[in-house]
Each structure stands twice: as structure tokens, then as C-alpha cells.
Amino acid sequence: MTTTNTYQNMKISKMTPESAYMYAKDIIKGRWVEAESIIKQEPEYAFFYALDVIKGRWVEAESIIKQNPRYAYDYARDVLKCSWEELEKHDENNTIALIKDIVLELNQLSTKLKLLIDNVNLI
């Protein structure tokens, strides 16, 4: 791990769910996988991250979002666009959403790997 990555990881670990969500939304303007474990600690910011950043379902955070009735309702209405019961009936294992999340993460990792390879080739 490089010094920069260590520094970034230290910064992430000190962030609140709110600040990590805001950074992803306003600065990165996209998904920030490295900080998702922090963002999903609070239902409010997990919901807003799914809505504003992912712009879709965030399967890994659904159990957290469901803990707060307000954000569970908002998530079902604005992100899922169906009730939790309908979702569970049609997609009991969340298989399709999980596959999409895995593909997205693999694409992001592939992009990072290409950048690392390019940087190594420059040296």
C-alpha cells in the first residue's frame, strides 16, 4: 500500500456518514466504494447515497435503511419504486441487483487497475 493510499484510508476512517456521502456527491460526483462502509452506517445517508449517487438500488445497505421507518419508506418510494413486499416477492434473493452491483464494482476495479498499469509503464 502506498503512502497516499494509507493517508486516504486514514481520512476515510475519520469521516462521518454525512461527510462521506457529501464528498461522494459533491466532489467525486459518483460512487465512492472505499467509503461505502462508513456511509451505510446511518439509514439517512445510505438512502441519500442510493438516491443521489448510485441512482438506484444499493442492496448492501438495505438492511440498514430498513431500520428507520422514514428512510425505508422513502427508499421504497424513490429508489425501488415498489413496496418492500413486492420486491421480496419478485426478487427474493436480490439476485439481479446483486449481480449489477458486482459488475459495477468489477468495472471500477478494472479502471483502477488500468490506471495503475499505466502509471507503472510511465516509470
Features:
single chain; 123 residues; mainly alpha; 8 helices
Characterization of the model:
With 123 residues, this protein is mainly α. The chain has one domain. Helix content is 73%, strand content 0%. The chain has eight helices and no strands. It has helices at residues 3-13, 17-28, 36-39, 43-54, 62-65, 69-80, 84-90, 95-122. Helix 4 packs parallel to helix 6. The mean pLDDT is 86.
Number of strands: 0
* Oligomeric category: single chain
Shape: globular
First-last Cα distance: 17 Å
- What is Rg? 16 Å
Proportion in helices = over 70%
Derived structural class: mainly alpha
Total number of domains:
1
Order of helices and strands: HHHHHHHH
Tally the helices: what do you get?
Answer: 8
Strand content: under 5%
Mean of residue pLDDT values: 86
Poorly predicted residue ranges: none
Major β-sheet, in short?
none
Please render the helix and strand layout as text.
Blueprint: H1 3-13, H2 17-28, H3 36-39, H4 43-54, H5 62-65, H6 69-80, H7 84-90, H8 95-122
Helix pairs in contact: 2-4, 4-6
Compact summary:
With 123 residues, this protein is mainly alpha-helical.
